[in-house]
Amino acid sequence: MCYRIALNFEDGVTRFVDCKPGEKVLDAAFRNRINLPMDCSDGVCGTCKCRAESGAYDLGEDYIDDALTGDEAAEGLVLTCQMVPSSDCVLSVPTTSLACKTGQQSFAATVSRIEPHHDAAVVLELATDEGAEAPAFLPGQYVGIDVPGSGACRSYSFSTGPGERTLGFLIKKIPGGVMGNWLARAKPGDRLTLTGPMGSFYLRDGDGPLLFLAGGTGLAPFLSMLEVLARAGSRRQIHLIYGVTRDLDLILVDRIAAYTRRLPNFTFATVVAEETSDHPRKGWVTQHMPGDMLATGEADIYLCGPPPMVDAVRRYLDETGVKAASFHYEKFTPNAPLKAIA
User: Fold this and answer.
1) Which tens digits make up the pLDDT trace of 51-60?
2) Which CATH architecture is the domain 210-331 placed in?
């Protein structure tokens, strides 16, 4: 049995390596031709210091305090030359992928389903090649998808969980958008090239309450997170607020509702901003924040949506003095439309 180690670099690139039982992370990385920072490899210099975001491991006793102090170890810092995993782990590497002589990985997939949702968004599903390993990623991360015939690449978060043969994405419809124009004429069987995974917006380990705040197609990474939590049988308190502009922008609500049957402590609320809407909850997500969940300061808050929403939520948290155990957010900016060709 091997343990899957996710190496997250400062430039947003994530690489996965398999670590054999009893093998040190530094050795596993080198075996996969990823040159993590290192000088001594003996637990003396501290050059290979990284942060363990999740997972179980043993650091042994063969390193000196100058390389890694007790306080640093208690905060999750590790020496990869000494770290022996006993579970899957996620590490933040304090340098770029280029500095470690590695980079993004690309793979191909085939369009299996295209489902438009009014004029709001498109659900795109891709099938990975038979016999190929299912792409590894952390729930919440994204990939770049090359738009055939355009020379352009667009970034989208996974809406499905890691390890699945079908990859799902939620794509906002933008008039004149490069990807939207291609999707309008695409069909099952078409081939696409994907690059990734990438991004520092992903679900961390923990036991406290989770507050998910999604705006529009920013729902996608939360669907991936909910899938992973459901697979793990999580009993954490989880509340999702899904905010949109119009009623027609509410999509995949039935899929969200399905998680209430798989996660015993999961609840969600949908919010529509448009004043003329008959939706039972109108306004902005900040007007529907669960005070009881936020009162203790123990909740981990995750936020993904368009820049105005993200900025508004950040201001709200600052102005109201809301404290969180951790706060993670990601903005997405609609891609520019195609320019007219004379």
Assistant:
1) 999 999 999 9
2) 3-Layer(aba) Sandwich (3.40)
